[in-house]
Amino acid sequence: MKKRGLLDFLLFMGIMGSAVLLSMLLSGINDDNNPFAMAVFILAVALVARFTSGYFWGILASLAGTLCVNYIFTYPFWAFDVTYPGYPLTMAVMLVVSVIISTLTTQIKKQEQLRFEVEREKMHANLLRAIAHDIRTPLASMLGASSALQEQKLSPEAQASLISGLHRDACWLVRVTENLLSVTRFSAGGVSLKKQEEVLEEIIGSAVAKYRRTANNPLPVTADTPSEILMVPMDGTLIEQVLINLFDNVSAHAQGATQIWLHIRPTPERVYLSVEDDGAGISPSQRSHLFDGSARPGGPRGDDRRSMGIGLSVCRSIIRAHGGELWAEDSPHGGAALRFDLPGGKQP
Amino acid sequence: MIRKKILIIEDDPGIRMFLKTTVAAEGYDAITADSGRHAMSIISSHCPDCILLDLGLPDMDGGEIIASVRSWTQIPIVVISARSTEQDKAEALDAGADDYITKPFGAVELLARIRSALRHTHTMAENNAVARSGFYRVGSMEIDYRRYRVTVDGQDIHLTPNEFRIVALLGRHAGRVMTYRAILRELWGPAASMDNKILRVHMASIRRKLEANPSDPRYIFTEVGVGYRMAEDGDDREKKG
Fold it and tell me: What is the DSSP letter of B142?
């Protein structure tokens, strides 16, 4: 708040000072009662009222403006003359201008704030719902499996299958929490990203290796190698996370996919990346909910499969925080294409 | 054969239990410590063969423990850390840790790291082996230290002198993560600029010459935010864990 007050004060001083200077310059042209001063100061009062918060500075500006016009720019110069006939009018005009504009500004700000808060609440609610859903399903199956194991009347094969189920669910939960942690890394209190120039193929190589190591049923990934070395400013671990999520998403939800392609297209200002598969694709109706965490894979057995989860919405937040965008299209390979772009990407 | 002693320094009882069970099941002697102070006294009295160190101990800074162990012994130290703390990992490696493993991890991955750390106990001896034979081989790649040459499948790879020095350094420390800082210091001296951009441009160029697919390397791996690691024979890190 203190900072805001100081900023307002500086704005006030700056605008009013400029008005005085401008009027003085103009008064050189015409030595008589300065006809421009009044207009200049009304403009200044309007500006102060618009760009400072609350009514205080606007009203102060109208008072100061009236005094300046009276003191400096009307006959007798450099002296107060309350008998000057236009004086109450000047005063009233400036006061009214300041109050009207301050009111409008404050109203607009309040509405913006309100809309922003509603939007944020909605996002939080969506995210929480998606998280709860992502966590509940594997937890239920882990609880079931572990209680069944405690019964100790199971065949070794049954035990083994329950244990591998436990492991798979734990891995899933790990991925959910990794995603959540990724988001808190940059969205906590608006902390900006720790961007560093990274060689794009290093991040891709590392993401592909991690995907191959940790996915339940990894598909072969064919990644383009750009002919020139691309240095892209980014938070390397976050973009790596995005790629792993997109690969995982194909593994988990693209029915019939046998392969993943990663295409890279550099332009002078941005780099475009596209994760594509030859699976069933994403229907237009799913597309609209793809990134808000509520999407369910369609098809006849839609309900028993896990949601696309928060993975994709996390990807979108990460890409947006980098100044890019993530969207879905149809792939020429027959399945879905999840594309995103990142600003930068020049040869070293 | 004498059973190797592994010291586990971890304050969380659940993870300590998991580590101890896994390590013991593999035939190692597991000793545990739940605090830095306790660990320090065990290290000097028991002389373990390998130390697993959690970086987030309540009583002592992990870096402090590494530095104080390194002041008198080369016992391999594998650091256990959470993700999203690349800075901490790099610092631990620069302080003298041998390797790191990121939570959460499975038994297979853990045991692979311990085996690798025990293999590297005598890094100096290994360097000597490379120096004696004058070669480092992995897969179909060979570094010839006497002729300053690198070949893949018998084909000469034309590296610039700086590129060769980077490959040679990674080859001497194969299997271990070399931080950007360590590589820069080794190759360009202690006064080198700590801007790792030049190193990464060199690396991208090396990969284009060395790897069939630079986006899916077989010989030099990237540890994002930390550094590089050269593959070694019996490399089980890239396998599914």
Answer: E
In a mutational test of the B interface, the residue from A196, A202, A262 whose CB has the highest number of chain B CBs within 10 Å is A202
Any A CB within 8 A of B73 CB: no
- A46 CA: distance to closest CA in chain B (Å): 49
Residue A327 CB-density burial (10 A; 0-12 exposed, 13-18 middle, 19+ buried): middle
The shortest CB-CB distance from A178 to any of B83, B238, B239 is to B83
In chain A, which among 113-172 make CB contacts under 8 A with chain B? 167, 170
So what's the architecture of B5-122 in CATH? 3-Layer(aba) Sandwich (3.40)
Q: Which residues of B touch A223 (CB under 8 A)?
A: 213, 215-216
Instruction: Confirm or reject contact between B222 and chain A (CB < 8 A).
Output: yes
In chain A, whose CA is at the least distance from the CA of B197?
A197
Question: Is the CB of A348 less than 8 angstroms away from the CB of B216?
Answer: no
Partners of residue A178 in chain B, C-beta under 8 Å: 83
A101 lies in the same domain as A201: no
B132 in contact with A, Cβ within 8 Å: no
Give the integer Cα–Cα distance in Å for A246 and A309.
12
Taking alpha carbons only, the member of B172, B179, B175, B164 closest to residue B210 is B164
Residue B10 at interface with chain A, using a CB cutoff of 8 Å: no
Give the domain range for residue A319: 194-343
Sheet with strand A270-277: strands edge to edge = A221-223, A260-266, A270-277, A336-343, A326-330
Which chain B residue lies closest to A184 (C-alpha atoms)?
B84
Q: How many domains does chain A have?
A: 2
A318 inside 8 A of chain B by CB: no
Q: Which of A95, A114, A133 is the C-terminal boundary of a domain? A: A114
- Spell out a b/e string for B141-156, using b for 16 or more CB atoms within 10 Å of the CB, else e: bbbebeeeebebeeee
DSSP string for A96-137: HHHHHHHHHHHHHHHHHHHHHHHHHHHHHHHHHHHHHHHHHH
Decide if B215 touches A, using CB distance below 8 A: yes
Please name the helix (run of DSSP H) or strand (run of DSSP E) that holds residue A207, with its range, or none: helix A200-214
pLDDT tens, N- to C-terminus, chain B (241 residues): 678 999 999 988 989 999 999 999 999 999 999 998 999 999 989 889 999 999 888 888 888 899 999 998 889 999 998 766 778 888 899 888 989 998 888 888 899 889 888 887 655 555 666 777 888 888 899 999 989 999 999 999 999 999 999 999 999 888 888 999 899 988 888 777 767 888 988 999 999 999 988 888 999 999 888 899 998 876 655 443 3
* Buried/exposed B161-195: b ≥16 CB within 10 Å, e otherwise: eebbbbbbbbbbbbbbbbbbbbbbebeeeeebeee
* Secondary structure of residue B140 in the 3-state scheme: coil
Note the ipTM here: 0.81
Q: What's the pTM?
A: 0.72
CB contact, 8 Å: B221 with chain A?
yes
